[in-house]
Specification:
Layout (H helix, E strand, L loop, with lengths): L10 E8 L5 H11 L7 H11 L6 H13 L7 E6 L4 E6 L3 H10 L6 E7 L6 H12 L4 E7 L8 H15 L5 E7 L20 H7 L12 E3 L2 E4 L8 E6 L5 E2 L3 E5 L4 E9 L2 E3 L1 E2 L4 E6 L10 E4 L6 E12 L11 E5 L2 E15 L5 E2 L9 E15 L10 E6 L2 E11 L6 H12 L7 H8 L4 E6 L3 H17 L4 E4 L1 H5 L4 H6 L2 H18 L3 E5 L5 H11 L4 E6 L11 E3 L4 H14 L9
Parallel strand pairs: 1-3, 1-4, 4-5, 5-6, 24-26, 24-27, 25-26, 27-28
Antiparallel strand pairs: 2-3, 7-16, 8-9, 9-15, 10-14, 11-12, 11-16, 12-13, 12-15, 17-21, 17-23, 18-19, 18-22, 19-20, 19-21, 22-23
Helix pairs in contact: 1-3, 10-15, 13-14
The structure holds guanosine-5'-diphosphate.
The site of guanosine-5'-diphosphate has 17 residues, from helix 1.
């Protein structure tokens, strides 16, 4: 079996990349063999296998043999090898392919603190070499040792090495990564990996690994817990809710005050649980469950932080640096799913600021879309705010991936939150209104004829069936008085969604959009349009308001408000549907939507 690193020593995760055949596996094989990290008898076993099959032995085969053992026939995205030096334990991860690379880095399966990048001396820098450099920088890997391999193929001519060093240093310059070392190698013969060859004076690979600086421990950073799931336990009258997920950084203990973002609700941790066992605290990388003292309304996707520690940034428009690898380009007007920590949001490309072709780093400001293998700085907009940390070293709460249909099509880091500029919703509304074909009947004439104004009455609260019955009761009450009132059940909208919308995006985003457009038309026709949407939050309310403009919305909340909820024009206690309908009816009179017959 592969030796696992020990608990007490310092540990560092290093990713190794490089164009295929440049010698990555040979470097890993050599590192393992020459540091004595191979499982007992493995080297002999692979050598014997080669001899039996009349194949020359290669160090790269060692890795294949180990991978097979690790995966047991399952394809693994990221193979891991372990070795140690006197200084620390190393976990070397090997991510084949861009997609596996991005996925592993973003989901944190292989959070690397440093990287080794292998270049074949004879072949020189290839497109993938450059792309890997770009990916490393985007994913926040700041320290890279560049290994120029197969020096035997260029007769150990150090001027070839110097040329590659210069060219690649120039390429990396704009990328904010630090090359900590360039090392010429002959990995096949073990030159300069663990021991120095007589033709070279600089550091070996092992020395350059030990020279990598350990970034601040995840434990020392502010507490971040992306809420993945919420489990309710109702048996024996127990109303407990457990927030489940994995701690990203920092530590939290029972009794700590916590704040959730983006909703900004605060509470105190009551218990911390791990695998059905109560523990006193939870730290980085630990799967944990938390219960809260009071029970604020929390949705999965929120980021739980500790009060008094630096908060994350909350926004719905941000400047990002991303790498695109989708078969179709990243374009404005299309919806993508953005995943950041446990948050999921529908995202749109608002603006492209700068595009670099990752194969040659040629930069252009002219492009309005992002092609495959481009690296772009752009503004993304999400339909609801999400909480994130700005790109800072290896924190997982600042990296995101974009999903186009079902594929990870791009990923990157958030650079800034931006507030400037109109949102795509307000731009859309502006365009829609400028092209709106108004009715020949003025709204005032309509109101006179119908005997009331038009209005979008939106009921919200946490009890869906109660909201619906109140909405229907209001509809009957108004209709009985001869008003033009119409109640729309949300299922009618949900059922009308295309299957790909249902599957690939948060369908609620699409309901909200359709509801807003529909409300605009129905209120324009002079009706009192009533609907019910549970747990309406502020961004959703703002979007509905924008889409229904220039007409207005009356928001009615029934029951307690969840925090982060849209402020309501009328708040009612939970009551029977008839009582709620009467209260809303009175409110519509006060707002002069309908006349008061009792006068
Ligand atoms: P990977 O695809 O990057 O993992 O590359 P491998 O480690 O499998 O190496 C590709 C080929 O290059 C293999 O046939 C190796 O034996 C060979 N190779 C690796 N290092 C050296 C070297 O230093 N010199 C020479 N001549 N060949 C090497």
């Amino acid at each position: 079996m592969i030796q696992e690193p020990s608990e007490s020593r310092e540990r560092m995760t290093v990713v190794i990349t490089g164009h295929v055949d440049h010698g990555k596996s040979t470097v890993i094989g050599r590192l393992l063999a020459d540091t004595g990290s191979l499982p007992e008898g493995k080297l002999e076993q692979v050598k014997a296998f080669c001899a039996r099959n009349s194949r020359p032995f290669e160090y790269a085969f060692l890795l294949d043999a180990l991978k097979e053992e690790q995966s047991r026939g399952i394809t693994i995205d990221c193979a891991r090898s372990f070795f140690k030096t006197a200084k620390r334990d190393y976990i070397l991860t090997d991510a084949p392919g861009h997609a596996a690379f991005l996925k592993n880095m973003v989901t944190g399966a292989a959070r690397a603190e440093a990287a080794l990048l292998v270049i074949d001396a004879k072949e020189g820098i290839r497109e993938n070499t450059r792309r890997h450099g770009v990916l490393l920088s985007l994913l926040g890997v700041r320290q890279i040792a560049v290994l120029v391999n197969k020096m035997d193929q260029v007769h150990f001519d150090l001027s070839v090495f110097e040329k590659i060093k210069k060219e690649f240093s120039d390429f990396l310059k704009p990328l904010r990564v630090q090359t900590t070392a360039f090392i010429p190698l002959c990995a096949r013969d073990g030159h300069n990996i663990v021991s120095r060859a007589d033709w070279y004076r600089g550091p070996t690979v092992l020395e350059s690994l030990d020279a990598f600086v350990k970034p601040p421990e995840a434990e020392a950073r502010p507490f971040r817990f992306p809420v993945q799931d919420i489990y309710k336990f109702t048996e024996s009258g127990d109303e407990r809710r457990i927030l489940a997920g994995t701690v990203e950084s920092g530590r939290a203990s029972a009794g700590d005050r916590v704040v959730f973002f983006p909703s900004r609700q605060a509470s105190r941790l009551k218990t911390v649980e791990s695998f059905n066992r109560r523990v006193s605290s939870a730290g980085p990388g630990e799967a944990a469950g938390f219960t809260l003292e009071d029970e604020p309304f929390i949705r999965s996707g929120e980021l739980m932080c500790r009060e008094g520690q630096p908060p994350p940034v909350v926004g719905s428009r941000f400047r990002v640096s991303l790498f695109w690898m989708g078969a179709s380009p990243l374009v404005a007007g299309k919806k993508y799913k953005l995943k950041l920590g446990s948050a999921r949001a529908t995202a749109r490309l608002a603006r492209v600021l700068n595009v670099l072709d990752s194969s040659d780093m040629a930069s252009t400001r002219e492009k309005e879309h992002v092609d495959r293998h481009d690296v772009a700085e752009c503004i993304l907009e999400t339909t609801k705010p999400i909480a994130f940390d700005l790109e800072s070293g290896d924190e997982g709460t600042g990296r995101f991936v974009l999903v186009d249909h079902f594929d990870i099509a791009g990923g990157g880091v958030v650079l800034d939150a931006v507030e400037d500029g109109a949102s795509t919703v307000s731009e859309h509304v502006h365009l829609r209104e400028s092209r709106w074909e108004g009715s020949a009947v003025p709204a005032t004439a309509r109101a006179l004829r119908y005997g009331h104004g038009s209005k979008f009455v939106l009921l919200t609260g946490s009890d869906g069936p109660a909201l619906e019955s109140a909405g229907r009761a209001l509809e009957s009450m108004l209709f009985a008085e001869g008003r033009k009132a119409y109640f729309l059940g949300m299922r009618s909208i949900e059922e009308g969604l295309d299957s790909d919308v249902q599957e690939s995006f948060d369908p609620r985003d699409e309901w909200v959009r359709r509801l807003g457009e529909l409300a605009r038309i129905l209120t324009d026709s002079g009706q009192i349009f009533i609907t019910a949407l549970t747990d309406l939050d502020e961004p959703e309310g703002r979007e509905l308001g924008a889409l229904n403009a220039p007409n207005e919305i009356v928001v009615v909340r029934i029951g307690l408000a969840c925090s982060g909820a849209l402020p309501a024009g009328l708040t009612l206690p939970e009551a029977d549907a008839e009582a709620s309908a009467r209260a809303i009816h009175r409110h519509l009179i006060e707002r002069a939507v309908i006349p008061n017959h009792s006068i």
